Structures are given as structure tokens and as C-alpha cells.
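Chain A, query sequence.
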Amino acid sequence: MFPDLGPRYHFIHKIDEGGAGTVWKALDAHTGHMVAVKKLKTSAAAIDGIINKFKIEANIYLMLNHKNIVRLKNFIILKGAYYLIMEYIDGTPIDKYVVKFPNNRMPIEVGIAIMKEIVKGVGYGHERNIPIKGYDGVLHLDIKPSNVMVSNNGTVKIIDYGISQGTSEQRSEKIMGTLMFMAPEQLDVTTELDNRTDVYALGLLFYYMLTGLYPHPKDISNDEMFRRINNSLINKMPNIKTGTALKIQSILEKSTEKSPIDRYQDCNELLTALNELN
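Chain A, predicted structure.
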């Protein structure tokens, strides 16, 4: 059943559903544009702090004005329910985009071009001062293939700042994120996170884009995943033969160093390394 938001929004179909919310595609009759409507689930809203986090997500999107970050169109509270009306991206998430290429991996030149756009968007968030306590910059903290879209016109869009955190905000007391693309410091709630946490995830995403492989096996236990995140280096890219591939391997290794001090210290450093590949 579609939400009833009045005559303005004409719902078409469900796009996705997760633990915290459901997303539909809808037509905005006032503008004639398609939008994505994200509703906070009632069960999630009952959890202490989730509604406030949802409101913060709305404010973050309002302040993040960048071509590589999905835009917020409206924020609605109606009959006790909470909705984000987002820009609709007519395109494909990275995890489905890679299958368009042989062996489910992007050609190096395509991967580099897309990765640069992702890094620009994430880096912009890191540097954006938002008038919310602790948000003198925004960490995404859930960078993964399904959270980056490639539109049909080639524009790269980062989505889902739902678990984002301010760069000086106090950490949540529970682990948040997607284990497969999580940095070691995210596993310890007593450790403060910073830009380098997203840099680590960006390195894992780049590896996935160029190899079609996940950084860890998908069928292992959480305990084994924790062990691998803390101790195991990502595998080398297959068929490293050219100078460019060797340089990319070096970028992947530096991005995913276990200790944050050994990684690129911010997205600007990572972008510089990517630009030197050309």
C-alpha cells in the first residue's frame, strides 16, 4: 500500500525496503519530475533517537549541494510519519552497473573516472560545515556499491546518508554500517572516526569496481568477518600487468591500511593520487 501524501505525489512502485525505511518512486505533480519518497518505518521510529537521526539526515541533505550527492526536495511530517522526498536517480547502483562489463568488472579507465566523482562528493561532505552540533563536516560511514548510483546520463550520485556522523559528533554506542565495507576502527565504538574511515571504504569500493569481487567472502560468520577486517589485507587485483594497474594497486593498498595514520589522510590526497593515473 502506498502512503497518502495528498494529490501532489503519485506513487508508482516500491524501489527498496530496509530495516529503517521504505523507498518508493513517485511523480511530483507540482513539478512534473520523478522523486524518490523515503518513509521512516513505524518500528524504527519507536527506537530512541531514530526520529532525531532522520531529521538530521534531512538537514544534511539540505546543506550538501553537490552534483555527486543526491538532493533533498522536501521533508514531510504527516500523521506521525516522517518522509524524505529525494531527487530520483534514473540509473543503476554500482553493484548492478558492474555486471554490464565483461567479468563483472569495470575497465580501468571507466573505474577511475567514476571513482574520481565519488571521491569528490564524499570529500565535499567532509569539508561542509553544517549548523548542527558536531557537524563541522559529514562522514558518510556506509560507502558501498549499492549506495552509489550511475545515472543514465553518466552522472555519479552518492545516496543514503542515513547513518552519517558529524566529524566531531560523539559516536553511537553501537556499531553502524555495512561490515563488508567497514574500516577496522568502526568495529570499536570507543574509537573516534574521521575522514580516513570513509577513505578506507572508498578503497574497498574501488577494488570492487575494478575486480567485481567483494573484499571479504560473503558467506562467513560475523566473528570471521571481524577477524578479517582487523587483520587481513585485501587481495591483490588479478592480472596486474600495466604500469597503471600497478599504480592502482598501490592506491588500493594505501587507502585500506589498517591504521588510519598510514592511509591517505583525506579525500583530497586520494583524489590527487587518482589524478596522477592519467
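The beta strands are 9-17, 21-28, 33-40, 72-78, 81-87, 91-93, 138-139, 148-151, 156-158, 165-166. Residues 211 and 238 are 7 Å apart (CA to CA).
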